[in-house]
Design brief:
alpha+beta, globular
C-alpha cells in the first residue's frame, strides 16, 4: 500500500463526517477567467502534505489562452476537506463515501468533463492567491461574499511542481487574533476579580 493510500485510509472517518465549504490557489493575474480542468491528482507535497493538485488551462480571455496554472487543495484536516468538498460540489463531482476511492473518482471526472469549461475568479488576499470556481462557463452567477475559499499556494519554482498551500492560513490568523482577544478579556476579568477581593 502506498503512502498516499495509507494517508487516505487514516482520514476516511474525517472525510465521511466533514460537510463542504465553498471556494482555491494560483499564481496568475487576479481576474475572471474561463478555464478547463486538465487534471486533478491526489498526492503529497514536497513537505509531505496530502493534497489534490488541480491544473487549469485558460480558454478566455484570448490574451491568456493556453496559459496553465494550478491550485492545491489540502486534505490533512477537516477545514481543508470541507473546502475541497465545496469545490467539488460546484464542479458537480460526486464524491465517494470512501476517501480511498478519491484518486480514481477525480481522474474519471476529469476524463468525462474534458470538454467542459468553467468560470473562475482569481483573487489575492493576504498574500495568497485564491482560485474560486464559480460554475459552468456562462451559467455561473458569481461568487457570494464569504464563500471564497480560504486557500492559497506558494509560488512554484517550476510549472507543475507540487507545493504546499496554506488553505487555513486566514483561519489560523483569525484564531490567533481571537485567542489574543480572549486572553486579554480573561486578564481584565482576573484583574477586576482581584480588585473585588481586595475591597
Amino acid at each position: 500500500m502506498s503512502d498516499v493510500a495509507k494517508d487516505l485510509r487514516k482520514l476516511s472517518k474525517t472525510w465521511s463526517n466533514t460537510e463542504s465549504k465553498k471556494g482555491g490557489g494560483s499564481n496568475i493575474k487576479d481576474g475572471d477567467y474561463v478555464v478547463k480542468i486538465t487534471s486533478m491528482t491526489v498526492g503529497k507535497s514536497k513537505a509531505g502534505r496530502l493534497q489534490v493538485a488541480e491544473k487549469f488551462k485558460i480558454l478566455e480571455p484570448k490574451k491568456n489562452k493556453g496559459t496553465e496554472f494550478m491550485a492545491f487543495h489540502g486534505l490533512e484536516n477537516e477545514n481543508n476537506i470541507a473546502y475541497f468538498k465545496g469545490h467539488c460540489e460546484v464542479l458537480g463531482i460526486e464524491l465517494p463515501d470512501d476517501m480511498e476511492e478519491l484518486p480514481e473518482v477525480l481522474e474519471a471526472w476529469v476524463e468525462e468533463n474534458e470538454d467542459e469549461s468553467f468560470d473562475v475568479k482569481v483573487k489575492t488576499k493576504d498574500g495568497y492567491q485564491n482560485t474560486t470556481v464559480l460554475g459552468v462557463a456562462g451559467e455561473s452567477e458569481g461568487s457570494e461574499d464569504g464563500e471564497e475559499e480560504e486557500e492559497g499556494e506558494e509560488e512554484g519554482e517550476e510549472e507543475g511542481e507540487e507545493e504546499d498551500s496554506d488553505n487555513d492560513n486566514d483561519n489560523e490568523e483569525e484564531e490567533e487574533e481571537n485567542d489574543k482577544k480572549n486572553k486579554k478579556s480573561k486578564d481584565k476579568k482576573k484583574g477586576k476579580d482581584k480588585k473585588k477581593k481586595k475591597k
